[in-house]
TrEMBL record:
Localisation: Cytoplasm
GO molecular function, one term: ATP binding
An example Gene Ontology CC term for this record: cytoplasm
Span of domain YrdC-like: 23-209
Residues holding L-threonine: 45, 68, 77, 131, 151, 191
Annotated Gene3D superfamilies: DHBP synthase (3.90.870.10), Threonylcarbamoyl-AMP synthase, C-terminal domain (3.40.50.11030)
Matches recorded under PANTHER family: SUA5 (PTHR17490), THREONYLCARBAMOYL-AMP SYNTHASE (PTHR17490:SF16)
Binding residues for ATP: 72, 127, 153, 161, 205, 247
Chain's role: Required for the formation of a threonylcarbamoyl group on adenosine at position 37 (t(6)A37) in tRNAs that read codons beginning with adenine.
Family of the protein in this entry: Belongs to the SUA5 family.
Entry keywords, A to Z: ATP-binding, Cytoplasm, Nucleotide-binding, Nucleotidyltransferase, Transferase, tRNA processing
The protein's name in its UniProt record: Threonylcarbamoyl-AMP synthase
Lineage, top ranks: Bacteria, Bacillati, Bacillota, Clostridia, Eubacteriales
Record organism: Alkalibacter rhizosphaerae
Amino acid sequence: MTRIIYMEEQATTLDKDNKIYEEKILQEAAAVIQSGGTVVFPTETVYGLGANGLDPVAVKKIYQAKGRPGDNPMILHISSMDMLERVTNVIPEVARKLMDTFWPGPLTLVLKKGPQVPLEATGGLETVAVRMPSHAMAKKLIQLANTPIAAPSANLSGKPSPTTAAHVVEDLDGRVDVILAADQAAIGLESTVVDTTGPIPVLLRPGSITLTQLKNVVGQVLVDKGVTQRLAEGETARSPGMKYRHYAPDGDMILVKGTIPGVIYTMMDWMEKRKEDHPVALVPTEYLSEFAGWDVLDMGPIAKPEVIMNRLYQHLRTCNQKKATFIVAPLFAEEDDFLAVNNRLSKAAGYHIVPAMTPGNENREE
Ligand code: TXA
Ligand code: MG
């Protein structure tokens, strides 16, 4: 049985002082973590499915709840720099700079694993991924549990990461001990992951903290091949989570790459071509009117990448609810701000990317 606690509702109806009430609820949730149970909690990126990161038996429950392969390493979430000492003994200079700049916040650093961290939490690796979230409820929960909390995104394996409590309940009701149902995720995409164990930091997973922001702090940053390309069979992913087909909607999905207006023109052409299916287009706000009469989802304005980021996972879930059998979306041309969105779109589409046609040159690559 899962205990679902609607934080907002509880705080206003049962106690006028949100803080005191939430603290009591969070103490109960922290006790569940301490006794080896599972608690879903909100963070600023996506909801996390948490358990005591230093307890191998508790960590295994996360894999079971998600239906996730057991070799996929997890992020350990900490609430203070003191707690960092329990997960690693080695903090390279670049890692220190990145922590100083971006923690607490949506940045995960891969570091050398400390002896207390069980291999169950790292998927057998000698390195460990660590993040200090900024969400007040997440921070408080970790602090009260007084242990690093291992937490992957709180979705069933293969589903988009959950950005609302409703997504979590849909996926995990009956599979975890507690769900702290709170606000919609402010960022809506998983954290930026950077490996700082080598001589030059490597971006393993793009997120809302951009490559430019990272470079501004540490100078050179390499980009793992898995960020922009599908890895070939047998090729090893530096970020093991990257090797699984993530976020795939039920319908066929294709992405159109190029510049506007060719992209819009080509998306329309595909909608027309697949009209016997149930086609759905993910369209930037600026171009919605061109798709009048079609089933579309408003991605948000191109001028606001953070809005497009924030809506993406909801849209992918909506495509399934609509039983869309064909989905078309743009791949964004602007590289830095859209690196994370393009990365998640590419995975969702299984890297099925077609070039935009330009009117008069209607050669289509399929
Ligand atoms: O925003 C987030 O990061 C969310 C919230 C809950 O904090 N969590 C999250 O966790 O997205 P998860 O498990 O879905 O993704 C963890 C990513 C995976 O891509 C995994 O391969 C990578 O981090 N990772 C974890 N440990 C690693 C390690 N030791 N070396 C390389 N990559 C690692
Ligand atoms: Mg995930």
